[in-house]
Amino acid sequence: MKRPSRGFTLLEVMVALAILAVSLVAILGINGGTVRSHAYAKRLTVATLLARSKMVDIETHFLHEGFTSEFDQTMEGDFSEEGWNDFRWRAEVVVPKLDAALATTIVRELVDKLLGDIEQQQTASDGGPTYDVRSMAAPFQGLLEGQMAQLVELLKRSVREVRLQVSWFEGGREETLDVVTHLVILPEDAQAASQMLPQLPQSPQTPLTPQAPQSPSGPGARQVTP
C-alpha cells in the first residue's frame, strides 16, 4: 500500500520564513546603503565642480582688483545663481605672515657665519688673515639685506592663501568640502588685468570683510603657514 506524501511541518515553515526575513532585511540594507552612497557621491561631485568654479571666480576677482587689503579677508555666499540653492561657500583669504626685520636678521646671521668660516680657513692655511673679508663683503651684505626686505614686502603684497569651504546638508547633517590654494598676483599683473578685463559687477553675496590680526597667544588665535 502506497503511503501518502509527507508535507512541511509548522516549525519548518516558521524557520524558512525567519531565514527569508533576515535575508530580505540584509538585501534591503545593502541596497539602501548603495543608494545613499550614490547620492553622496553625486553631491560630492557637484560640490567639487562648484568649488572649482568659485575658485576661478575668486582668482578673477583679485586679478581684476588686486590685493588691496593688508589683513585677512572673508567671502561667503551660495550657489543659487548656478541652480544649487542648498550649497553654500565660505572663503578665507589669508595674508602670509612674513616679517621683513626677521628675514633681514636671518640673512645677517648667515652672512656672519659664512664670513667667520672663511676667516677661520684663511687663518688655518696662511697663519693669519691677509685681507679684511668683512670690509670687502660689507657692501654686498647691505645689498643682500635690502633685496631680502624688498622680497618680503613683495610676497606680502602679491601672495594670498585662499581657504575655500563648500557646505551642504546630507541626511540631516552638514557635509563640507575644503579646498586650499595659493594665489600669486603681482601688482603689475593686476594693473594690466584691470585695463584688459571688463569691469566686474560687485555681488552682494561676496563681501570682503577685513579681519584684524590676532595675537598668537590670544583666544581663537591660530598659526598660519605662508
Write the layout of secondary structure elements.
Layout: H1 10-65, E1 72-79, E2 84-94, H2 100-126, H3 133-158, E3 159-170, E4 173-184, H4 187-196, E5 209-211
Antiparallel strand pairs: 1-2, 1-5, 2-3, 3-4
Helix pairs in contact: 1-4, 2-3
Q: Quick summary of this structure?
A:
The chain has about 230 residues and is α+β, with helices and mostly antiparallel strands. It has helices at about 10-65, 100-125, 135-160, 185-195, and strands spanning about 70-80, 85-95, 160-170, 175-185, 210.
**Order of secondary-structure elements:** HEEHHEEHE
Shape: elongated
Number of strands: 5
Poorly predicted regions: 199-205, 212-226
Sequence of strands across the biggest β-sheet: 4-3-2-1-5
Q: What does the model show?
A:
This protein has about 230 residues and is of the alpha+beta class. It folds into two domains: about 10-95 and about 160-210, no CATH class; about 100-155, no CATH class. Helices cover about 55% and strands about 20% of the residues. It has helices at about 10-65, 100-125, 135-160, 185-195, and strands spanning about 70-80, 85-95, 160-170, 175-185, 210. The protein has a five-stranded antiparallel beta sheet with strand order 4-3-2-1-5. A hairpin with a 4-residue loop joins strand 1 and strand 2 (about 85-95). Helix 1 (about 10-65) crosses helix 4 (about 185-195) and helix 2 (about 100-125) runs antiparallel to helix 3 (about 135-160). The longest helix has about 55 residues, at about 10-65. Residues about 200-205 and about 210-225 have low confidence and may be disordered.
